[in-house]
Design brief:
The protein is mainly alpha-helical. It is built from eight helices and no strands.
Amino acid sequence: MDRDLLEHRLAHHGHQVGGLRAAVLGANDGIVSTSSLIIGVASADGTREAILIAGIAGLIAGALSMAAGEYVSVHSQADTDTADLEAERQFLSTVPDLELRELATIYEDRGLDPDLARTVAQKLTEYDALGAHARDELGISARSAANPLQAAAFSAASFAIGAILPLTAVWITAEPHIPIVAASSLVFLMLLGAIAAKAGGANIVRGAIRVLIWGSLAMAVTALVGRLFGTAV
């Protein structure tokens, strides 16, 4: 491929979206949920040991939950795509003329004149009929496909990495835990938001502030709940 064309394509960020989404979702969830859990237990006057046990339990449960959810989600989508492709394969073998007209209509709707649309449809059908219909009719592409086990492992690992950060803050510092965990977690969240925004080509400041707001809200709510229940007990 021409070097200038390759560099031009790499200027876009769409090829990073799949992995980026899973990494950001997992790590962000790990930081927010674990730090909120720690702050909630600490607000209820929990001991350092109780805080660490709760945080570790939250890490394990959250990582497994993320893995299971991602596996089911990706596997369900893969099953749906497989069924759609099989149905399309059957249509191509039984009603090829109808499928050709359908493909040409798609290109007409995208702005090509009827003759050109039919020519394009014929050429793509000759080259790779199923691939053309998968991409342009069903919206299935190689980039959108994902391995369920890989997605599950990636989500679990990213959650665990995020959850380890507030746990480390409790482990290496003395009391009071709430301000230390809250401050460190918010810093981690802002860095994560900025990195995600940078990788996706978005505004860095806006990305950092977005996760800062939601992280602060989650921690504040769990601190309030912990304080209320701790006082009541």
